[in-house]
Amino acid sequence: MNVSEVMSSLVATYNEWSNILVNTQYIRENNSITWRNHTPLMLPYIMHKNDLDLLEVKKQYTFQIIEDGSFIQIFYKFEKDNSTLIEARLAYYGNTPIPRSGDEWDQDGEDLELTFTHDTIMDELIDSDTFSQNSFYHDDFIVPWLRIDFSNEETECPLHHSCHMHIGLFGDARIPLTVVPSPRQFIEFIIAHFYPREYHLMRLDQDGKPKNKGQLRKINNPSFQKIISDNYDYLPHLNIPIY
Amino acid sequence: MVRRMIDLNVTLPTYATDEPAKRIWSWIEEKFPDTEGVCYYKHPVFTTESIISPEFTLITKKHNPIIICCFSWQLEDIESIDENFWKINGNEIDSPFYEAEDFAVTLQSKFDKHRILRYRLGTIHAIAFPLINKAQFEDKFPDKLNDEIIIWKDGNINPIISPLDLELKEEEWRTLKSIAQGIHPLTKGSGLIHKDADKLGDAIKYIDRYIALLDEEQAKAALQIAPGPQRIRGLAGTGKTVLLAMKAANIHLRYPEKKILFTFNTQSLYNQVRTLITKFYRFYSEIDPDWDNLHIRHAWGGYSRQGVYFDTCMRHGLTPIQLQEARILDRDHPFTACCKQLLNKNIEPYYDFIMVDEAQDFQSEYFQLLYKLSKSDHCIYWVYDELQSLSGEQIPSPKKLFGIDDDGNDLVSLEGEPYPGGIEKDFVLHRSYRCPHKILMLAHAIGLGLYSSDGPIQILSTKESWDSFGYIVKEGELVEGNEITIYRPPENSPTPITEIYNGSNPEILTMTFKGKDEELDWIASSIKHDIEVENVLPEHIVAICLDGIHMKHYLPPLQKKLIDLNIRSKIPGLGSDVSAFGEVDNVTLSTVFRAKGNESYIVYIFCFEALYDYVEELQNRNRAFTAISRSKAWVRITGVGQGMLDAEIEINKILNDQPEFKFKFPDLSSIRNLDAETTRRRREILKGTESLSDLVNLNPKVFGELIKKQPKLAEKLLSQISEARKE
Predict the structure, then answer these.
(1) I need a surface site. Which of A135, B408, B598, B608 has the fewest CB within 10 A?
(2) Where are the domains of chain A?
(3) Does any CB of chain A come closer than 8 Å to the CB of residue B304?
(4) pLDDT at A214 over 90
(5) Which residues, at least 6 apart from B349, have a Cβ–Cβ distance to it below 8 Å?
(6) Substitution target from A67, A70, A136, A195 for chain B, most B beta carbons within 10 A
(7) Taking the model in full, what pTM does it have?
């Protein structure tokens, strides 16, 4: 994919998911797809609510999710030819404080999959007067995140594949990916797994089967090329579909 | 209302015993020509060589400003006079003439900074010796006086009366008053005389500057330093945080060594307060405030953020309670648990002055803690937002807040005479500046349901309550069935809009649509028009969704529509409180909850049909009140279907009767009475109901034991029940 295709992918994805992607800040800046006033922030492996506040205040994100204010970052950098990808960074920071020892969870008897961590807890927290009162809450809550990094320095190290995923709390673990996801692929991935209700409404029928298999496949078109590597022969990894 | 008197603003209680000053004021009051003006006692505070204030700073519309320094000396007290030094009772002091001149020069320099006043004024400085006879002085010290302006024992104040060639125009007068108050730093933009504006954006530019001046009530609240507890309350939009910040800055200027605390509840207030205090302080000082003595502190704090609770723990070598433990102790109000922990310890007084903003957000335990932290005079000034919403969580009494001492006396009382110098103990700010008259009245009427088809659903039932809202009961006793007329004097909602804007956009606009899509389309294109044609900045526009439950369905599509029109927007506070409202270059799309405490020039309120939709009518109306009262100038209300049509009918009825409300007083027993007394009683009844229910539901055996063990109480209960039955 070249930079224009990436931009189109991003715009098309926003158009399709504009019911849940909000506060968009994506821009194209020369050879990069990024967000306004992009400033690198050093974020710790163990992230707290405080750190998310930093993202919010500094406006370092591409989208927020209307459901819970989670953040998505989308960054691609190309060579001057605009077709060779040098660097990429796709991140999701979940604004869903991980509560302590179970007593915050209020499932309401609903399907675990559909309520996950978002609706009930966040609603209660947001509406409660004490939520905003003090930094204690912020210091206390750990938040989940994941980030896909790509840099085109090839390595033969299975632990440091050129495109890999970091998962919050799991320190240095770098789970290899076969392809750098396009914006569409990444966002679809996030929504599908972390906002299953919305995904279900958009993509699946009553029985949970795809409404339109062809359409789902086309989400992977266009996509970047598969990263050639022997690393896939050694350890389990994540396969990103190519159309 | 043209005022032709000079208003005296006493800022320190020392006035009560300052006989020379009182005498001077009586002469000024009696003999100064008829004119609109303000005379400050001990204000402003100048940080020149030493930190003092002249006794009087007098400004009027028709005269040059005057600084007066008063001295209570008798002639025999003055031993010698020299150009730079005088000897008074064996002590050498700076020449009072030069000191007065210092003040005048400093003040004049502030005037000169503003083009509108440059070359207009020449500040006069005067000395007053109200106990000394001029002839006798000249006898003792011949040839020592040149052309200094002095007020002598004979009370002749003509020397200080220096009329301007041309009376000050309104704009010049407002600027002069601003500077004297020390609030001019707030004004934005360098525009001078305002022109008539027919575009919304141009009118907006001038509104801010217009409002930046404190009225007399506010100036007193901001500048007086009460020698004990003081409460300040007013409706939202009466500028209380600004007042409190000014107070803090003034106190710090005057008493730089004293410990001052400014505390509040909302995290995001920290920066605003710090900026305000610095601005006010720097108006009269060359340097920044000393933050070691002036503490701006969130109530709680944490390891990464300062706070009153944390600081107090640190100072006393106590380990602060962590959140989890606090929630175990008190699930709904964990912070209260922390305060209780401290209240059990021996807390050392630390602060000379304490300012509490957002007092309505705190429980009484925090006030009790602040009481302990305050030194013996207990100069605690707390500010109440009288009804952020209409559901009066009525203001707790000082007794409720601070408690009682060992003898059962209230620790803090606001009863009785004002403090010396006429400094009020309990301030009510009647004027609401944010909301224009028409819009505020609309907000109240909708909130109370005065014109709803079923009649009011909540009401103020006494004249005093209406007064504290800025209304006068014009006709009718507040009794069920009576036709009532309530009037809002225009001066209680100063509305610069009508003076400044002469375009065709109405102040209040309502529209009904057939469907949501149509409604959102209209809003988006109207916003586009505001920005592209009316020159309004995006950050001055807010769209509030009245339907909180379904906001997730409506805010994103509206945002998308705006994006398609190349307009950026922000939905703040999706997961936390830190995001800013009114971000530059962005229209703000919000829920009512997030909009609370914020304001904007142009406010769209959509999904207004939600007013009638759900079961919770009270909540809906409170939300509508909050939404409408965010506006500083224009309101556009939209919705769909029959609900919106009904709303339009109600709104039109309200607008037709303005500036009055005309309605039938409701049956109080069936609706919510917002009076303090009734609310208190209601709460007590609720509490009593719980206790009664607990008692009745006790296990019969247990109940039997209880009666046996507490015969006296049981008797009392029996007799109380039969008494009550008789009634």
Answers:
(1) B408
(2) 3-233
(3) yes
(4) yes
(5) B372, B373, B374, B375, B376
(6) A136
(7) 0.71
- Mean pLDDT, rounded, for B457-465: 81
CA of A179 vs chain B CAs: smallest distance (Å):
31
Eight-class DSSP state of B190:
-
Cα(A20)–Cα(A18) distance, integer angstroms: 5
Contact yes or no for B560 and A18 at CB 8 A: yes
Predicted local distance difference test score (pLDDT) of residue B286: 80
- B265: nearest CA partner in chain A: A133
Start-to-end CA distance of chain A, whole Å, equals 13
How does DSSP assign chain A, residue by residue?
A: --HHHHHHHHHHHHHHTTTTEES--EEEETTEEEETT-------SSEEHHHHHHHHHHT--SEEETTT--EEEEEEEE-TTSSSEEEEEEEEE----B-STTTT---TT--HHHHTTSHHHHHHHHHSGGGGS-HHHHHH-EE-EEEEEEE------TTS-SEEEEETTSTT--EEBSSPPPHHHHHHHHHHHH-HHHHHHHHB-TTS-BS-HHHHHHTT-S-PPPPP-SGGGTS--BPPP--
Q: What is the CATH number of domain B437-673?
A: 3.40.50.300
Residue with tokens 């507490």: B710
Alpha carbon of A25: minimum distance to chain B alpha carbons (Å): 9
Quick one: pLDDT at residue B366? Answer: 94
Give first-to-last CA distance, chain B, whole Å: 52
Q: Residues 237 to 266 of B: which have CB under 8 A from any A CB?
A: 265-266
Segment (H or E) for B603: strand B600-606
Rounded to an integer, what distance in angstroms lies between the CA atom of residue B486 and that of residue B657? 10
Select the residue from A20, A53, A122, A134 to test the B interface by mutation, using most B Cβ atoms within 10 A.
A134
| Interface membership of B179 toward A (CB under 8 Å) | no
What is the dihedral angle through the alpha carbons of B618, B591, B433, B445, rounded to the nearest 10 degrees? Answer: -30
Question: What distance in Å separates residue A235's CA from the closest CA in chain B?
Answer: 38
What pLDDT shows up at residue B599? 82
The verdict on domain B214-429 having CATH code 3.40.630 is: no
Task: Report how far residue B401's alpha carbon sits from residue B360's, in angstroms, rounded to the nearest whole number.
Answer: 11
**Residues B588, B549, A73, A199: is their CA dihedral positive or negative?**
negative
**Alpha-carbon distances of B544 from A60, B572, B578, B691, B693, rounded to whole Å:** 25, 11, 19, 42, 42
**How far is it, in rounded angstroms, from Cα B229 to Cα B82?**
44
B520 touches A: beta carbon within 8 Å: no
**Averaged pLDDT for residues B691-697:** 85
ipTM: 0.81
**Do the chains contact at B574 and A66, CB–CB below 8 Å?**
yes
Cα separations in angstroms, B413 against B455, B504, B676: 38, 52, 17
Cα–Cα distance, B37 to B119 (Å, whole number): 20
